[in-house]
Structures
1.
Amino acid sequence: MDFKDVITGRRSVNFFDPQKPVSDDLLKEMVELAALAPSSFNLQPWSLVVVKDAERKKSLQKLAWDQPKVSEAPVILVVLADRSAWRPGHPVLEHNFEEMVAYGRLTADQRQWFEEACMSLYGESIEKQQAFAVKNTAFFAMALMLAAKHLGLDTHPMDGFDHQAVRKLFNVPDQYWIPLLLAVGYFKSDEKLLPPKWRKSFEQIVVEF
Amino acid sequence: MDFKDVITGRRSVNFFDPQKPVSDDLLKEMVELAALAPSSFNLQPWSLVVVKDAERKKSLQKLAWDQPKVSEAPVILVVLADRSAWRPGHPVLEHNFEEMVAYGRLTADQRQWFEEACMSLYGESIEKQQAFAVKNTAFFAMALMLAAKHLGLDTHPMDGFDHQAVRKLFNVPDQYWIPLLLAVGYFKSDEKLLPPKWRKSFEQIVVEF
């Protein structure tokens, strides 16, 4: 599908057809396309809890403003942002460091520099830890929404949930933030979409101080 | 350009051709395509400082690990995330509320519910304020990178900069976080790209606790 059609055609849909499941193959294709998103030092601090089971969706719906789409969408992705993925010893960081050295992007004796850079950019305050985890995971989540559209799927990114209660329901460790839930499925064709919401123009986006 | 080619072809390039400028029209098209990204209550907490002037780029380069691409890329976007865009009185919020009422998405007497929802989801802690601003702005930034590729441009998202010093250089008010600098231009064709970095597989991304 042409990129322009994907980005203009992507809508946050409120009504999913509960009769149309998303195949495991299609979900995998969507996730792996989205995982091509870039990330800080390639640390990829994103993970997903995949919720398909009707009872689990029902429990989640209760914690998400009781929105029917949580149960109606065949798949809900609980999107997780790992606030500790910049720490030495984290398996993804260690894998990356090895790869960077193998490709000559860094030399082995830059290890200390690398650790200090990660600490100063991503570790030294709550603000920085949160920004690191959420930024990179949101790159991935935006790519998920677009990859879904490309594959004929619809999505809805959701903020309206009780963060602590959802954390508890899925036993999510403290190192993760939950930036969003993402409903994935097929738009229910007998419902009507409202017109797209307004957007800021180029002139409204560009600022000087 | 096909979406799959865009997402697989997007690379963070380190070398930009300083002789190939980005036209104002193309930059505007890129930004307005990206601005179709979704955001929490459509609050669009993203802004850009557009840096093209050689002297300004030079000053910015000094604050960004002296990376040559900051000067070589014809455009550097200082990407800003507004941590206050959920507050009553913010012009974008007020515009959205009016539009939501006009389209029947909310009724005027849901104003108090709306304000309380914004406060509880985005306002009640530093973590939540930061996550709100950075998440939505990162949706926009990911869309910027993909829209750029679709339009034949290359990009590089940068973390390696002194946050406070860049804030000072551009007089960025405290309400904004700077999640990234984005270099935009054309890959310098006499340079070679390293192979794409590894990515986590579907099985590595999906977790249960």
Note: Chain A has a mean pLDDT of 97.
2.
Amino acid sequence: MCELLAMSANTPTDLCFSFTGLTRRGGETGPHKDGWGVAFYEGKGVRCFHDPDPSASSRIAEVVQTHPIKSEVAICHIRQANVGGVCLANTHPFTRELWGRYWVCAHNGQLSNFSPVPGFYEPVGTTDSEALFCAILNHLRQQCDKTTPTKDLVDHLVDLATGYAREGVFNLLLSNGDWLFTYCSTKMASITRRAPFGPARLKDADVMVDFESETTPNDIVSVIVTEPLTSDETWDIYRPGEWRLWQRGEVVMAGCS
Amino acid sequence: MCELLAMSANTPTDLCFSFTGLTRRGGETGPHKDGWGVAFYEGKGVRCFHDPDPSASSRIAEVVQTHPIKSEVAICHIRQANVGGVCLANTHPFTRELWGRYWVCAHNGQLSNFSPVPGFYEPVGTTDSEALFCAILNHLRQQCDKTTPTKDLVDHLVDLATGYAREGVFNLLLSNGDWLFTYCSTKMASITRRAPFGPARLKDADVMVDFESETTPNDIVSVIVTEPLTSDETWDIYRPGEWRLWQRGEVVMAGCS
């Protein structure tokens, strides 16, 4: 299994605090030592860091922890391999271009009977997660186009996710840089931080942050994770089958399939 | 204009020395301060770093200079913007997946009359370089498939490059992780280092390396750049219209159009 982390914010915000907590689980407080990756959108561009080494001891992870990269949407993943060897090509998140935007995906889970239909997008590595991502994009490309309203795209995503979740574990983070789609098959939690901001303490590292000193009163920043990252805040736990579409830090559509 | 750098090697090799030289030209010894990027293949995977900030003062560039990332094919670019604003989405190299492989491209130049035909791959940013890359991949996807022999793919690439070079400046680095295609419209040089290895001194920084202490006798490492990076080695200058296909550090096909 793996752990997921995403952020949606209404202003460019860094992920240093949450990333520090998550990456400790990559070989230190958790067993997810088979690589890690993170994608930060900046406008339509996306900046990715991938490393097949454990995040807890990665030099590049250390830079991402300490060098604030500001983003409105970010997706991060730490891996404990099951399907697919430990190598760079199997390291989430995965990226493809569709309709002139970069789409980024990270997935946690495993399906028992998934066999991808050949399509335009092909996996480069050998994980079922990347094959699922390609199958989702192939479906969207066939059924929709760049003028399709977000609501209709989300209907397709919910249908696909619901189908996949019937076949196994399927927790998904997917973004096109504008919105962030999150689907919980077994485990996901979120928190939305807004004024008045307070302090928070990581569970996995002896690190505290006072968000008030790092934000303005208008900031809205949401974090979505597999397991809550802080010990002194109340996280909102997703139910199995629940999905939420995030935009600028807030849930703009949601449901339970 | 921009500067290009690529490496092809028969064993995973780091790019620290050459990258250090090139990145000084990004705002220090040269004017290419509008961002930089580098892609390192590791097997079929690819690890990219992009930054719209000047490479000479980038914290992430510093990590890439000092943290050896070993690769058999790498492509790097430092940018001096002409078409397209300074932003992450306009920062080379660009990546797309085709036939289950990541294709990476960096380009230097400008075409006067290029207007891309809509196709499967679409640019995300606003550079003509990314539009050209998409046009090349759209052409290959239409005319070839994943079983097409490399020789035939290269014929297509040479035809396309020759056509583009007629319309302006078109210096190109393109790789699918297996081979590296290089096309010189105006300026390109290469060097192949093999045993007996000797020392080399950068032009752009007070840095010397003794390759003998960093290599084994079987290593073959070639570096391809816009302008030679060292002051005490003999570089092989491309003629205008010349192309070379590199694989495992050596030229495996070449010609002049």
Note: Chain B has one domain: 3-256.
